[in-house]
Amino acid sequence: KQEVTQIPAALSVPEGENLVLNCSFTDSAIYNLQWFRQDPGKGLTSLLLIQSSQREQTSGRLNASLDKSSGRSTLYIAASQPGDSATYLCAVPLKETSGSRLTFGEGTQLTVNP
Amino acid sequence: KAGVTQTPRYLIKTRGQQVTLSCSPISGHRSVSWYQQTPGQGLQFLFEYFSETQRNKGNFPGRFSGRQFSNSRSEMNVSTLELGDSALYLCASSLLTGQETQYFGPGTRLLVL
Q: Please, are residues A38 and A55 in contact by the beta-carbon 8 Å criterion?
């Protein structure tokens, strides 16, 4: 059974700081790993999808890395802004289940203070 | 391109009632998945539909059911509501296999009294 863990559970940083969010998974047989952002009471916004064959994926100030063999992914946020405050979730689909079933981590709640 | 839409956005029901939630995927997307999000359990997979067929099912009781129509729109139904069914229900759509990016709707907030 796939288990996804995110550390830390909460993070508070001053504006402008670079930060790293961590995600680990127990079963390395994944198709990809997706990072999402969720604002309070809202749906999920897809940030980055990194395929199992990739090592990194970048979008603007965000950079996601994937080390499938060690079961880890990191989301790097450069020059953080108050608007980055949200809960960040990582999720993986298992290869053994066809289709779209995602297993999510519990999320990291990020607060960027002005 | 319009995103994933869900209706209604908010719903209040009482125990024992039933409820139907609707999800319209992004145009052209054929896979629709449903998730339940609660503070205690996080995001849990309910089921996935592809081309009107249930392709995957999570560990929820039979009170939770769903279907998909020929236009890919999906509905989920919860019968005999319990207090513990209070949650944010999210649906996600993807193009075909789910190995692509999945896009989530804004969710339906269900409160069971």
A: no
Q: B109 vs A31: CB contact, 8 Å cut-off?
A: no
For the beta sheet containing B74-78, the strands, ordered from the edge strand earlier in sequence to the opposite edge, are B5-7, B19-24, B74-78, B64-68
Q: Which of A46, A49, A100 sits opposite B48 (nearest CB)?
A: A100
pLDDT digits (tens, 9 = 90+) for B46-86: 999 999 999 888 999 999 999 999 999 999 999 999 999 99
The closest of B29, B20, B63 to B49, measured between CA atoms, is B29
Closest CA to B89 of B28, B17, B41: B41
Q: What is the pLDDT of residues A66-91, one digit of tens each?
A: 999 999 999 999 999 999 999 999 99
- Maximum Cα interatomic distance, chain B, rounded to a whole number of Å: 39
Q: Give the C-alpha separation, B108 to B99, whole Å.
A: 25
- A100 and B106 within 8 Å at the Cβ level: the answer is no
Question: How many other β-carbons are positioned within 10 Å of the β-carbon of residue B34?
Answer: 24
**Hey, is the C-beta of B106 within 8 angstroms of any chain A C-beta?**
yes
pLDDT > 90? residue A2:
no
